[in-house]
Fold this sequence. Notes:
The complex is a heterodimer of chains A (116) and B (109). In chain A, the strands form two sheets. In chain A, strands 2, 4, 5, 6, 9, 10 and 11 form a seven-stranded mixed sheet that branches. The N and C termini of chain A lie far apart (33 Å). Chain A is an all-beta fold. In chain A, 0% of the residues lie in helices and 55% in strands. In chain B, the strands form two sheets. In chain B, strands 2, 4, 5, 9, 10 and 11 form a six-stranded mixed sheet that branches. Chain B has a five-stranded antiparallel sheet with strand order 1-3-8-7-6, with no helix packed on it.
Amino acid sequence: ETGVTQTPRHLVMGMTNKKSLKCEQHLGHNAMYWYKQSAKKPLELMFVYNFKEQTENNSVPSRFSPECPNSSHLFLHLHTLQPEDSALYLCASSQERASSGQETQYFGPGTRLLVL
Amino acid sequence: QKEVEQNSGPLSVPEGAIASLNCTYSDRGSQSFFWYRQYSGKSPELIMFIYSNGDKEDGRFTAQLNKASQYVSLLIRDSQPSDSATYLCAVSTGNQFYFGTGTSLTVIP
Lengths: 116, 109
């Protein structure tokens, strides 16, 4: 099993739909992350979970709702999205969200989201 | 000012040459520095990380860090067409993790 998996790989949804993205890591890590990657823009960190506790929410709109039931699984629940939310959503994990900064993040393959 | 800046490129080098990718960062408290490679349509994959000033070598890749000048670079020796990708610089301050927009590299056979 590869280190970090994400499902689905592609998703098309309407603005009134509710969907969820799933991420699973098989690396024994304790920190998990959601990123948004849009064309020509830097990776945008959305949420961070460290030992199942949300430690960062970088001013993400409430139409994105994360859930981390355990250290291996991370979800991103989507509802009433806008077309500008279309992007590649990447999940990553690291050993922990170390205060020393010496965390190395490993990425999943991403979910390509299109909002119509 | 952007937290992490990279020249978006595209950078083109002939096969076998040295490719030099540069990155500057704004937070002097930054502690850890990472280079990721991202092929088109794929997710980023870690190439190297560096924490201390100086050079760190791993195969054909060398990361260079100069904290006084706030830059980090990646050298790719004997560039191969398979190295053609976007290279992302990432910087961690311990509290925040920032990515640059990436530099597109094309290695011409």
